[in-house]
Please model this.
Amino acid sequence: MTDNRFFNRSEFIGILVLAVFLVVVLPLTLDVFRLNLVAKYLTYAFVALGLVICWGYGGILSLGQGVFFGLGGYCMAMFLKLEASSVENTKIQSTPGIPDFMDWNQITALPLFWKPFSSLTFTIAAIILVPGIFALIIGTAMFKRRVGGTYFAIITQAVAAILTILIVGQQGYTGGINGMTDLRTLKGWEIRPDHAKIVLYFFEVGLLFACIMIAQFVRHSKLGRILVAMREKEDRVRFSGYSVANFKIFAFCIAAVFAAIGGAMFALNVGFMSPSFVGIVPSIEMVIYTAVGGRLSILGAVYGTLLVNFAKTSLSETFPELWLFGLGGLFIAVVLAFPNGLAGIWGDYVQPRIDRLISSRKPKPEGWTDSSVADGAPAE
Model:
């Protein structure tokens, strides 16, 4: 059970430890405010999980994951905003029944592309499909032309900048620089009280573990092995008859969908969505979460996200102007000194000691002494 094709024993134990930490330890030791902060941090863990598949195993560094985080967040925010903009709630506006920022910009009717978001079913589908299709378009345009490496990273940064400018510029349709605020209910259920925050936290943790299972499946499947081979020797994979572009597109799309799920949960937990989570800076921060945790470790990405965000909250309160420099220094230090992040430190230094300790405590066969030599082994 603990050593099947998708988990080895150490991975299974690691997932159990993470589950106990998130489901038992944190809810029992933190108040609702701090627990909601953890829920906010975990929304970024979805992005880090996607980057493990895309960057860690596929070798595709994307510096624009904030784009997909924002698309998922805005899809959910549009549904919540429409529900908060009922005729009764907006009767003081000149045009009741539309979001307040539309009324401020003299828009007198709900735009056509907003109307489907009154359905929760459509919204959930859009959270998955809109970022996935957008990633498919970008991936097809880039990877079919064999654009990769630094060039692809720069292009994703440009996409993040363009989308930010577009959201800010179309203030009447997106809320502009302020974003979408005052998100109150989900199908009539208040999402702002403390009990709702706790329910949303556990729901988010469940979604996170579902994404972890999907990532584990991809990693241990034939697809995962091809991604690793493609990262190491792309030409050899191509000469073996595989379509490298299609595998890259798949990895990029699954990372986009994971990021979008995180964005949707962010809008639910925090109660607003703005373009400040879409641009270049948040996208680079998301890469740092993955690098600190370990870009080759699925669980390390979650721990790295929590650690960096806890540090960000603590230090930014004391040194608000220096935090970004500290974040950049942390990224450089990790890449130079510990290229595999926290997971690499654990695997290189901690896990071997634990294994030696466990093996030393195992009962030895009867008659065995420290000077005994196994049958057939050459004596020194």
